[in-house]
Specification:
- The chain is an alpha+beta fold.
- It has helices at about 5-25, 30-35, and strands at about 25-30, 40-45, 50, 55-60, 65-70, 75-80, 85-95, 100-110, 115-125, 130, 135-140, 145-150, 160-170, 175-184.
- Strand 9 (about 115-125) and strand 10 (about 130) form a beta hairpin.
- The chain starts with a helix and ends with a strand.
Length: about 180
């Protein structure tokens, strides 16, 4: 007969194994943004796509400018935007093709709520891209939000995939407090 203690230990170990598997399938894009600031106080972003690190980038309209700065306490990242009626935050997915779902975790601070369109972009061998249907996400300041996207099988002509967080009308000052992608 199984004791209460043995059952609790079995459940604890099973939960710890699940957490460990999720941790290994999680890409901390906020940490990637902080890594892009290593050795410099700020990073200027220009119109077009900007590589911050190999796993994280941002894209602005041609007329837009932005800066990425570390927060004073070092836990968050600040985006200061000018002339941008949209901004994308992009995370590269390193997937072996077995994942079925992509969870995007976001928490932002700003002076007003924002709306983001979240979708997957596939890069094809011929230089074109294929975008999945987007999910509209409302980002309330200081509230954590999770968006779930279904992943489909990767076609043979796909060379890479990214999750795109397309911020509509970003606030002039946005504090990224959480930004991560987990594949399951």
């Amino acid at each position: 007969m199984t004791t209460l203690y043995e059952a609790a230990m079995r459940n604890f170990r099973a939960a710890a194994d699940v957490l460990e598997a999720l941790r290994s399938a999680r890409v901390d894009l906020l940490g990637e943004a902080r890594n892009g600031l290593t050795g410099r106080p700020r990073l200027a972003l220009r119109g077009g796509y900007n590589d911050v690190t190999s796993a994280f980038g941002a894209c602005l309209p041609a007329s837009g400018r932005a800066e990425i700065l570390g927060s004073e306490d070092g836990t968050a990242v600040e985006l200061r935007c000018t002339g941008a009626d949209w901004l994308t935050l992009e995370g590269t997915l390193s997937d072996d093709g077995t994942a079925e779902l992509c969870y995007v975790e976001m928490e932002v601070g700003s002076d007003r709520p924002m709306v983001a369109d979240v979708f997957l972009r596939e890069f094809v061998m011929d230089g074109s891209v294929r975008d999945s249907g987007h999910r509209e996400v409302h980002l309330a300041p200081g509230a954590a939000t999770v968006c779930k996207l279904a992943l489909h099988d990767v076609a043979d002509d796909v060379t890479g995939r990214r999750v795109i967080i397309h911020l509509r009308q970003p606030a002039p000052r946005v504090i990224l407090e959480r930004l991560a992608v987990t594949l399951t």
